[in-house]
Predict the structure.
Amino acid sequence: MNRWVGFLSLLLLNVAGAEEVRIGEVRPPVDLSTSRLALEYRDAAQRIIDAALSSHEAYKKLEQLCDDIGHRLSGSPQLDAAIAWALESMKRDGLENVRAEPVMVPKWVRGKESATMIRPREMPMPMLGLGGSVATPPEGISAEVVSVRDEAELDALGERARGKIILFDNPMPAYTPEGGTHYGTTVRFRGRGASLAAEKGAVACLVRSVTARSLQTPHTGAMRYKDDVPRIPAAAITIEDASMISRLQARGIPVEVRLSMEAKSHEPVPSANVVAEFRGTEKPDEIVLISGHLDSWDAGTGAHDDGGGCVQAMEAASLLRRLNLRPRRTIRVVLWTNEENGLAGGKQYLKDHESELSKHVAAIESDGGSFAPRGYTVECKDEQRQNSAIAQMREILELVSSIGPMKVDAGGSGADIGPMKPFGVLLMGHNVEPSIYFDYHHTHADTLDKVNPKELAQNVAVMATVAFVLADMPGRFGE
């Protein structure tokens, strides 16, 4: 058994039940082993949790990011403003080596857009063009819509797809603890539906929004074109309108839609990853990375996706500094640029820091919203190190078990940190309660009012505790 695992297994919490924690409330100490190291981390964890849950700093930061700056699409003035804000905020909080690391990012501008059903009756349809889509002609595209559920139904259309607008009406099943969100399978039509339709001669593509619940809310997201297929406009419509079109078609009633989009892709423009550090005392060249992505779609203000993830990382490091809990190793905050439509920030970080990747003890990304924290997923190229890290994390998370149930499993971590996996870095996804995330994902509804301040503070407490222990533990994490 790993020496750290065996030692720590003698140490950590055994909390019988979790109480509701409110911002401003200081919890009584929890019962722990009397081992010296356990007492050391028990006290530190208690201080971190109490400080995080009694602070409003994370929510204040998220308020500034979302309400003052707004959406942060790659290449937009708003993203530039967010980068400047993050730099100033972390400098003001006293973090070290605060800097912007240059990245070239794609620039896609939505422009004016609309969708209208013109037959069998005229009705405007809520829609959002998919990121990266081409425009329609200035007069728009008017054509009959043919609804299909999947690739097999599209193939069965044959020549009947030519000249039509293809609608992919593929429902996303409701979330269940056993089945998960089903996002990974349903999102495929958003990503490649336009090229699938164009191969059949379609003139445009509509996609049922990737969500299980809707109040006439369209969900945007990135799409991509195949190089050898004509590029046709692509947009998301609501699940209500997608279902209606499919019902009309099933009854033999033709549906015609007029789609108008001004979308345009420009040449790449300068942006930046924002980086700051809380330097270690004994091994400052070893790094525990905590992160979220600063860019967002241009619908809503990116409160859950991923303003909250950025604020969690920023405030976790700042909180440790305020508590003077400086660990042996360095905690590095990275706010990624261009996660949503290119991953340029993660790719550039790999190029800029390849020589020090062997010194990255762990890389953590929070990109699932700021709902109640629920644990971590862990992945590593080295399966033995992955399994060792999972065992250690199960023990470390006992320190925050009073906040709620925590789980650790092998699994995907985060899109921005993913490029580091081939280099042997231990990657971790900061997980939250997932059941309603896709109600807001990539929509106009992803705004600050959807974020619970207590849950945001809980995420800060968990991330700060985990980052501190990983950066301070005697042996290297996963070994």
Remarks:
- The mean pLDDT is 92.
